[in-house]
C-alpha cells in the first residue's frame, strides 16, 4: 500500500529552508540547527536526522533539555521546528531538542516508512513491498541514535518523547507496547496522531489490550483522531485501555478534522500536555 499523499503534502513544506548537511562529528559545536547522517547497523540503512535546538540552548551550559523524536522528519521537521521555536518564545510550547528522523528524499520516505514503522510483516491485502521492520527501527533509535544525541547535545535522558502520525503513530504505539512487554527503551512520552491501528487487522490494538502495566515507570500517552475519520469504535476501545496503573493517558477528537489534518495539532497539544511550557 503506497502513501502518495505524503508527496502532495511535501509541496506545502518545501518552501521552508533546509539546513546544510554535515557529518555526525561529535566534536562539532552545537548550532541552532544541525543535520546528522547516520548509518544504522540494526536497519542496515542510512537516515538523515535534522536537529533543532531551543533558543536558550547556549545560555546555560549546565541546562539539559527534553528530546522529542519526530517521525516522518522529511515532511514535518521544518514546520514543527518553526512552530515550536515561535510558541516557546511566548510560553506556549516547551523548550525541547527536536530530532526529525527522515530519509534522503521524499520518495524514499514514502516507501521505506512502510518498512520501518510496521510490525509484523503486512498481510497481502496491504500490498506493501517491504514491511515489518519496526523492531529493528526501534533498536536503531534506542541503541544508536539516542546515545549519539546524548553525546552530542545536553539531553535530559529522563524526559524523552516519541511522536508520529498515521503509520508513524502506529510505530509510536508499537514502541509503547514493547515497553510494556519488557523491552527497555528510553521513551517516557508517546504522542500518536491518527495511528493506523487497522494495520494487519488490528494486530497492535489486540497486543495493547493484553499488555501489563509497568510496576515503576511512569509513562504518558496522548492519542488524537479527527472526527471525520469515523473511528468511534476504535476510539472507544483505546479509551478503555490503561485506566489504572502508571500510564497517564489523554485522548482527543478534533471534530472537524480528517486523517491528514490531525498531525500538527496533535503534536502541539500532546507536547503541551506532557511537557508543560515554562513561561
UniProtKB/TrEMBL annotation:
Pfam families: Esterase (PF00756). SUPFAM superfamilies: alpha/beta-Hydrolases. Transmembrane segments: none annotated. InterPro entries: AB_hydrolase_fold (IPR029058), Esterase-like (IPR000801), Siderophore_Hydrolase_D (IPR052558). Gene3D superfamilies: alpha/beta hydrolase. The keyword Metal-binding does not apply. One of its GO terms (molecular function) is hydrolase activity, acting on ester bonds. Keywords: Hydrolase. Belongs to the esterase D family. PANTHER family: SIDEROPHORE TRIACETYLFUSARININE C ESTERASE, SIDEROPHORE-DEGRADING ESTERASE (EUROFUNG). This is Alpha/beta hydrolase. The lineage of its organism: Bacteria, Pseudomonadati, Bacteroidota, Chitinophagia, Chitinophagales.
Amino acid at each position: 500500500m503506497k502513501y502518495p499523499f505524503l508527496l502532495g503534502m511535501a509541496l506545502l513544506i518545501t518552501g521552508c529552508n533546509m539546513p546544510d548537511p554535515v557529518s555526525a562529528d561529535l566534536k562539532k559545536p552545537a548550532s541552532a540547527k544541525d543535520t546528522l547522517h547516520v548509518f544504522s547497523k540494526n536497519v542496515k540503512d542510512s537516515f538523515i536526522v535534522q536537529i533543532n535546538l531551543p533558543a536558550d540552548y547556549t545560555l546555560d551550559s549546565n541546562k539539559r533539555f527534553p528530546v522529542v523524536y519526530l517521525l516522518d522528519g522529511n515532511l514535518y521537521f521544518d514546520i514543527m521546528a518553526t512552530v515550536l521555536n515561535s510558541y516557546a518564545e511566548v510560553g506556549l510550547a516547551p523548550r525541547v531538542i527536536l530530532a526529525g528522523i527522515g530519509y534522503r528524499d521524499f520518495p524514499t520516505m514514502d516507501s521505506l516508512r512502510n518498512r520501518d514503522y510496521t510490525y509484523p510483516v503486512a498481510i497481502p491485502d496491504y500490498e506493501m513491498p517491504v514491511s515489518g521492520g519496526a523492531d529493528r527501527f526501534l533498536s536503531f533509535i534506542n541503541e544508536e541514535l539516542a546515545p549519539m544525541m546524548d553525546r552530542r547535545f545536553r539531553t535530559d535522558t529522563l524526559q524523552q518523547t516519541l511522536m508520529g502520525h498515521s503509520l508513524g503513530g502506529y510505530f509510536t504505539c508499537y514502541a509503547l507496547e514493547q515497553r510494556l512487554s519488557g523491552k527497555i527503551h528510553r521513551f517516557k512520552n508517546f504522542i500518536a496522531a491518527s495511528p493506523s491501528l487497522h494495520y494487519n487487522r488490528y494486530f497492535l490494538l489486540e497486543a495493547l489490550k493484553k499488555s501489563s502495566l509497568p510496576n515503576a515507570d511512569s509513562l504518558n500517552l496522548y492519542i488524537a483522531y479527527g472526527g471525520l475519520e469515523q473511528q468511534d469504535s476504535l476510539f472507544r476501545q483505546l479509551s478503555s485501555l490503561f485506566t489504572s496503573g502508571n500510564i497517564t493517558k489523554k485522548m482527543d477528537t478534533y471534530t472537524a478534522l480528517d486523517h491528514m489534518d490531525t498531525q500538527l495539532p496533535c503534536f502541539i497539544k500532546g507536547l503541551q500536555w506532557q511537557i508543560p511550557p515554562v513561561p
